[in-house]
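User: Some background: our group keeps a shared notebook of sequences we're curious about, and every so often someone picks one and asks for a predicted structure to add to the entry. Today it's my turn. The entry only has the sequence so far, pasted here. Could you supply the structure so I can complete it?
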Amino acid sequence: MMQDPVILTLQLDEETTAFLNAEREKHFPAGLNNVPAHLTLFHNLPGAHFDEILKMIGRTAANQYAFPIKLSEVMRLGRGVAYRVSAPPLLPLRAKLVTAFGRWLSGQDRQGFRPHVTIQNKVTIQEASALHAHLSEGFSPIDGRAEGLQLWRYLGPRGRGTHWQPAGAFAFRD
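Assistant: Of course. Here's the predicted structure to add to the notebook entry:
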């Protein structure tokens, strides 16, 4: 039985993912960028219930059509910067999963949901402010597509930063 916590993310199209990974590579502190760019739906699901979680995610993905997303603005995260993600179908999708996972949700996952992809974190407030200003200047929204759900095992801190291991991918209907 798996005991490591699991993380659920939204799978984006290849082009959007490549752009976000490149941004993360440019702006994330060296040595701390150990996971790919991601939009976290749930931060800490119990690995002890992995098989049940897999079934719930599989059913949800099989009944969900792929949908457009938009990187709609550059946003501040205190000591970091992210791209806000706007997509009308995303909130009802997450609400379904909140209902399915309700008894297992951590405090962090019960809080309000602000869909975003972090491209910089763990820097000074001044560094985050400078990058936010730089990226916001002339920013135009970027279109993309949500194509599925991804599950990751959280392996915790390893050296500098955290590490995740892929644990499943579930495509949406086309």
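Suggested note for the entry: The chain is about 30% helix and 35% strand. The beta strands are 6-12, 39-45, 67-76, 81-86, 116-120, 142-157, 162-171.
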